[in-house]
Design goal:
The protein is α/β, with parallel strands linked by helices. The chain is built from 19 helices and 19 strands. β10, α14 and β11 form a beta-alpha-beta unit. The two termini are 25 Å apart.
Amino acid sequence: MKQENIPHAETVYSSDAEDYYYTKINIPCQAACPALTNIPAYIRAIFEEKHERSYEINYGANLLPGVLGRICSRPCENACRHGEAELGKAVNICHLKRAAADMKGGDLEFSVLHLDVLPHSIGIIGAGPAGLAAAHDLATLGAKVTIYEAFDKPGGMLQYGIPEFRLPRHILNDEVDQILSLGINLETGVRVGEDILFEDIQQKHEAILLAAGCYRSNTLNIPGENLQNVYSGLEFMIDVCRDKAPAVGEKVLVIGAGFTAFDCARSALRLGSKEVKICLRRTEEDLLVTADEVLESKIEGIKIESLLVSAEIIGETAVEGVRFQRTQPGDLQDDGKRTIKILEGSEFVLAADTVIVATGQHRAALSLPGVDDAAPHQSTMKPFHTAIPDLYVAGDYQSGPSTVIEAIGGGRMAAETIARKLGGKKFREMIVRMQDCQKTDRLHSWDYLPRQEIPTVMPLETRLASNNREVETGYTKDQALEEAKRCYLCYLHYEIDISNCIYCRYCIDVA
């Protein structure tokens, strides 16, 4: 272990590869988080009722704790040891993050480390999670950052792709404003290539980060997609979020299997539809959305139709239904998805007044010479670089559609790449902090505490009456405390005191 700095005898900061490996293996929730959030630490802070400190720990890693505490895809929970076989259910990590945000107090003030060491001008195209995260980190180093955003408000898909019943806009706007308060210049309603030339941006800045996201919807490539009342999932959600949602009729079919598909389906109910179905090529077991999302959708009355693929959207001028074919699941592929086999002679029709195609998005070409050809995936390039000097890429525009937490993690890494290039040195480096501690007060009986599920608005009539009514109401302090107790605190490392060992072997039995 390389002891680089020891402020006092009990604390050691290490950059040794073995210590990195230890934390990765033994703190699986943190390793699974793209932003490397210190999850046990912020859960422990909630147990100690230090909600402000818990929020600070989160902010230091993922920047949007209140947002992510509501809509994160929760890769940490999939890695949680409490969810392993015979150990119960994973700790409700996501909703504990929200608890810290909800209970921190409205006037929380904390200092963000600000260094005046990067006196450069940097332009960022896109004010989504990746662009905001990169802007935050570059601004804290002293860079003069300008974000160019095509929409009227910052936030990207958080602002225009997620319904308010899942993400209240005052929560989002407060945390975005917290980032912008670092002195970041935001220009909204600016489309690069239309309202401002890319060449002009190049002349203004010493480096540019392209974080424009994925706003071009995938299509089914089947007959009937141009009929009236056929919408792409992304365009539908943008209209919903702008309070310009179309009339959807009584019967709605949503084709897709991601979060956008479920958001569209739940939004259609709130717009007055009586029968909403989500149509899957595979099965519920193959869904990547969270179990909570599936459960709440079913509670609201949405039906999930599995093992079918669309062949044609039927109608004269407007939608009347969709002709499907049955499918059969096959073997697992390298990407973790199963192949599908279409069953001949299995055609049938489902009636519909509206069809929403939510089969994903891809990045739209910006029609800028040399920019669209700067393929971010070229294996000969370093991460976040493009073929154009001083042009970098991050977020969904680089990777394709991903999650919010992945975009934030990628945006922060892109910022570090830019800072090192402009400054000629490392400004941040991950280290492992090791600190002596006394015997933990965690009780073994807490292993058997049931998972605290998040409370929701009931009855359904109240919930569905408004598209702006948040469904999940958040933990009470008592519920947050009980859920925090369940955390195994995997960041604690136990060692045997050999001088007191009596060779009873009980430690081996416990292990």
